[in-house]
Structures are given as structure tokens and as C-alpha cells.
What does this fold into?
Amino acid sequence: MHDAAIESLPFDVWARDRNGVCVSQNSACYEHWGKLVGLRAEEVNAPPEVIAVWLGHAARALAGETVRSDVDYVIGGEVRHVHKILAPIREGDEIIGTLGVNLDLTELRRLERKLREAQRLETIGLLAGGVAHDINNIVMIILGMASMARRRVPAGSSLDSDLSTIETASRRAAAICNQLLAFAGKGHLDVELLELDAVVAETVRLVAASLSGIAIELDVARELAIEADATQLRQLIMNLVLNAAEAIGERHGTVTVRVVAASAEMVAAAAVDDVGFAPAPGIDYVALEVRDTGGGMTPETRLRIFEPFFTTKARGRGLGLAAALGTVRAHGGGLHVETRLGEGSSFRVLLPRATRRVATPAPAEPHASWRGSGHALVVDDDAEVAAAAARMLGELGFEPRVCRGGAEALAALDDAAAPAVVLMDLMMPGLDGSTTLRRLHARHPGLRVVLMSGFHDLAESPLDAQVLAKPFTLDELAHAVRSALS
It folds into this structure.
């Protein structure tokens, strides 16, 4: 019974006599090391430095010590992390040999590393999202006031040119905030049905024009639709392709971009590699893979590639891969990375496959000169943002009133007739936008509301309200309010 129990163990177990000759081994030990019975440690096919360590441990065990050590062995062509125990075998007061056990901790170490990585990225994501939210509020004031001022100056004048420069710089700042929010998984998603092959081909064609000495190979399967934010999807593709090109550097190389229906093996690999990815049952996935012939990454670099502002490049902000991971997370996908130093890297993104067919969208109606009328309520806990939004609504023809939170807005509607429209921040302390919206609709079922925010998940937004992403221009505000009223 004792022998049967040892034989069934999934890890290496062996015993040697006092002279160092192996007298027994279980099946796991035989599978990993071959036949050891009858051999001394010096006769095993292993590097001399490894044998020297074995002999040193054996001497300590024969002296009465239980020796523990962590070692890395190459087993089956793969590096395995092993916790080794060598204990003395006693017969009465005499030590007659040694008992050895190898505990393979490779998977445990991998999971511990992934857990630490996930916790670190979550912490960084919370910080990045909070910073981006605050900056977005500031940028909204700048962009909103600049867009409103441009309506009051002659087109083509020097002041119009200066205001245009301010708008452009504001949008660049907003784009950086969007990358941070994407990493934090808090970016806005303007979801639509897309043919992935068409978006990939179009984006890669644009990127390829700026890459010198690098060949791009496209292998995209057709009729693989996904529901995604087109802007974020294009940014994701660009980030992965540019990252692959930068990994190749000044040398000539190839970046291969593939789009295929994800196999079960691909989904399983992503679930193992990406702690934040939990495949949904009954859902098919599409795989977008970007592979390069660059120099690959060290294990240390691999652990940090998704951290914001971490980069190994001479130029860049280190936000590309961080934003890519956030975009994948926001779309319910997973990301699997394979890399080997000197052999290049592969980034495989899995996204849920849509079952609907792609329809041609209707053209948008013009709204640049639209004006409204009546009372408007602005609800935001940030006084400067509320004041800027109120001025913009005034420019559109409304008579705005500002409330500094949900409770104040509810009280204001108790004292007056319902306004034509309510412009309300989604993220507020106390009563947030969603809670306030439900209470407003309970009292005034037909109330028109536009929610604004730079820090939320659209999947959790109320379905009966327009959503306006901060920062926004006067024209964008006009479009959202007009849509709400119509």
C-alpha cells in the first residue's frame, strides 16, 4: 500500500542508499529523468555543475539535515521551477540513505506572477482613470469655450486661427486622456457592428505608408463581424502594428497581421495568459494576431509592457500597449502574448464575434446652426465645468440654471416646471447621474436628459438618455441636445 501511494504521486520521488545508489523511483521520476535505479548521481546524464549540487545536498542529508532548495530544470525542453526536498532515511539511530522529492511549482509561480501583474495593472488603472477624469474636465472647459468663441469671430481671421490651434491642442490632450481611460477600462464605447477584416485592412494600409523597410503581410478572413467602437478598434490595430514595427527597428523585417475565427485552443491560451479574461460560455471569438520578426522580449520586459508610461523605445509615451489592453478589456476580450528573445513576438487579441450582419448606417443630419429655446438645467459637481456647459447652452438659445449635484437638481424641479432639457454629469458624489435620472423620470416621465461624462462604461448607462463624452465642442453639444429633444 505504501509503495502504491508513492507510485501514484504526480511528482518525482526517489530513494538512494548510503553509497548514493538509487534504489527506487516512481513513474513521474522515471518519465522526467529516465531510469535511475542502480545509478549513482555521478552517472546520471546531467551537467557537471548540477551533479555537484546534488552531491552537496546528499552529503548534508546523510549528515542528518533535511535540505530544501528551489532550482530550475529543463524538462521536456521547457524550464520548470522545482522545489527540491532531500531528507535522511533513518533506521533506528542510523542514517541508511536519502529520500528525494521534486515538487513542480511552475504553474503556481506563473499564477502568482499573473496575479501580481493583474493587481499592479488594476492599481495603475485606477490612478490613470482618476487623473484622466480630472484632466478631461479641464480640457472640456478649454475646448468648449474655444469652440463657442470661434462662432463669434470672422472666419479666416488671426483670432479664428488662434482659437483653432487651441481646439486642436485640446483634442490632442483629450486623446491622451482617452488612452489613459482605455487602459483603465473606463473609456467611452460608441459601439457599432463592424466587419473586422475591412477595418483591419483599411487601418493597416494607412499605417504601412509610414513604415520604411518593413513588409506587412495581411491574412484576413472575411465575414467576421464584431460589435465594437470603430475609433478604439482602429487605434488598437495601429498600436499593435506600430509596436511590432518598432520591435523590428532599423532592420528589414516582416509584420504579419491575421484575422481568423478563434479556435478553442486560442481561447484557452488567452484565458491562461490573461488573468482579466474570462471566456463567456456559448460565445464565439474572433482572433486578431500581429506577429513581428523583431528581437523579442526578456521576461522582465514582458511583465511590464502594459504599464502606462513604460517604454523601451527612445521616443513615445508608453501608452500604446496600455491603451490596447484597456480597449480589449472594454470590449470583453482577451489578449495572449508570445515572445522569445531573438525570435520576435506575437500579440493575439480575442474579441466576441457578432451574429448580426453589418448594415449601412444612415447619414447624419447637419446640426451646426441649430438653436433651441426654453429653460435648461445643468447638473455637475464641478462648478467650472457646470458654468462652461451653462454658457454653451445659453449660446444655443436656452436659459440655463446650474445645480451642484443630484439632490439640488431634484429640489430645483420641485420648485419649478420641468425644463426643456437637462444636461447632467454621470459621475457625481452622493446621488450620481444614473440614480438622479431614475428619480427625475419618476417625477417627470417625459423629461429630456443628456448625460455627460469622461469616465464611465456605456454598457452601464441608462438606455433612455443621450450620452455626451467629455470634452465636447458646441456643435457636439448641439447635436446631443437636438437628438434628445427629437
About this structure: Residues 359-367, 456-460 have pLDDT under 50 and may be disordered. Residues 375-485 form a domain with the Rossmann fold fold (CATH 3.40.50.2300). The CA atoms of residues 451 and 467 lie 5 Å apart. The chain is about 40% helix and 25% strand.
